[in-house]
Amino acid sequence: MKTRYVLPVSAALRRLLLSAGFGSLTLTALGQVTPTTPVYPPPAPTAADTSSTGSSDAQQFATPSVVGMGPSKGLIFHYERVPRFNVASTGQAVGLSDYNTDATKNARLVIKGYIPMLNHPHLKLILGVNYEREEFKFSSQPTGYELYDNIENKGLKTLGAQLAVIRPVNDVNWYIFRVKGELSGDYTSSELNVSDYLRVSSEFLYGWKRSPTFSWGVGVQLGYTFGRFSPYPALLYNRTFNNRWGIEALFPARVTARYNASPRSLFFAGYSVDGLNYIVKLRTPLRHENATLNSLELRETEVKFRVRWEREIYDFLWFGLEGGYRYNYAFDAFDRTNDNRIKIIDSKLASAPYASFELFIVPPRKFLKR
């Protein structure tokens, strides 16, 4: 009989890679449990499984994830586009006019990566980095309207880093803490002032793992999801009802129903709330009443009703196709020099369909095999 040797680092690396899917203002699967129907990637052993530890007395630790969640994402490339839509702005201060036009382009490029820094059964640390760029183009160039001329073909960028702490307490309870810092605005490398563009958000969740198919938690998020910087309650609810259907939610920011067509193909449907906050340095100073502004705070909040398909291409490489309908709740400019953050331009972006394409890298199966 041949003796099989396994390098000690493989098991550790497997656990690290399984933890790499923790995302930005939403929480994703961190571990898996073997379901009746195999789901990729294979999960950590259950309490009755002694194949990895050699003992059924090894302590088990709870995580927020449940059976059936898709593969953990380590590196993500995402591109999104919205077709032509109407834009209408109303001046909210004396001296500012109204304007109506069409946006011929609204595109977003997103690149994210997650690096496991520590992966003990009772403590996991994950470092995340992200780069995002949003662009607008309008039908009339220049529009003659201060806000639009200052974001026309001008990249609104977000460069960020986050640290997530996942702390399983025992076989039932867990908690998660995340802090994230981002530089958001129209800056360039030559004119970047960190204090002007820095945005910090955080969240804390405490939860209960009731079974391999049901985990839930409550907490608070502090950030820009709903426009202005503010705290709001959060409810995490992950549940798999059978071998096909499940739900993944971080309410009120995101609720998604999941359908497992196969271990290599998953479908999702639901909604998400996305909030962005940019600092825009004006090419031409904006004058209203008795004030002259050299920069604006632009708050963008939208609700997306979406369907999504994720499919394996080859082993570690997957793609995602997403489409749906975007409802814009706010696209407003504020006087950031005023402590009250007075709104000076109220804009409405017309609702419109959107589509996105995504490539993402997941742990290769050779790191997941036992």
Automatic annotation (TrEMBL):
<feature type="compositionally biased region" description="Low complexity">
    <location>
        <begin position="46"/>
        <end position="58"/>
    </location>
</feature>
<feature type="region of interest" description="Disordered">
    <location>
        <begin position="34"/>
        <end position="61"/>
    </location>
</feature>
<feature type="signal peptide">
    <location>
        <begin position="1"/>
        <end position="31"/>
    </location>
</feature>
<dbReference type="Pfam" id="PF19783">
    <property type="entry name" value="DUF6268"/>
</dbReference>
<feature type="domain" description="DUF6268">
    <location>
        <begin position="162"/>
        <end position="357"/>
    </location>
</feature>
<protein>
    <recommendedName>
        <fullName>DUF6268 domain-containing protein</fullName>
    </recommendedName>
</protein>
<keyword id="KW-0732">Signal</keyword>
<dbReference type="InterPro" id="IPR046235">
    <property type="entry name" value="DUF6268"/>
</dbReference>
